[in-house]
Amino acid sequence: MSYLAPGTPENVALAQHVNGRLRAEARISNARAFLFRAIGFGAFVGLAGAGLGAAFYGYATMNEVGNASDTLAKALTQALETTTLKTSGEVRLADNTLKIEGGLPVPASKGLPDVSSLTGNQGKSEAPANAAVRTSFTVFKTVPFLDGTIVTGWNFKGDEQKPEQQYCYLTRPQTFGDGTTSQQITVAMDGKVLPQPAKSEINFATIARSCIWFDPSKL
Questions:
Q1: pLDDT tens, 56-89?
Q2: Residue 202 carries which DSSP code?
Q3: Residue 122 and residue 135: Cα distance in Å, rounded?
Q4: Is the whole model's pTM more than 0.70, yes or no?
Q5: How far is Cα 106 from Cα 90, in angstroms, rounded to an integer?
């Protein structure tokens, strides 16, 4: 066994070796601590990214549902604008008798009522002296089509010999709740086919071929 005296070269070398070993172990401990901190920070960043991704995905999903509801609302609005629902009913008179004072007017031509008999003596006492009274009426022409009817209307104003406006529509029965309603779809106006809707079950051009437009030569 040998003892080293303080300050001897061997003692100094041993002290340096011990100090180097301690510094190396300190560096290793620091490196391990840094590694653990880096792993923790990486896990935090990963979890934060996953949370943000889930949040953005949820927002995108909710936004898509909102857009779908808006699209559905617009589609329903357009469908209601182009569709007319009519309910059928019954009107009964108290004495089951309907009387027309002066009798029925005699038609002046085929299929058209005598406008002069309708406008000649009406409104003289009710309206002011300087007011002109005009009587308008509509003549309907119908053609059966599948489970419905193609109806053409001629709107006459006053004593005109030809209609001021014409329109053609398809009416079909439709079940609504416990009753039956009539679905009316206008397909043409004044001899011109209306634009075909994108989501329509019927072809406007096909229906318009069965419309009966006003023709003076056929009266």
A1: 888 877 766 566 777 777 777 877 777 665 655 5
A2: S
A3: 9
A4: no
A5: 28
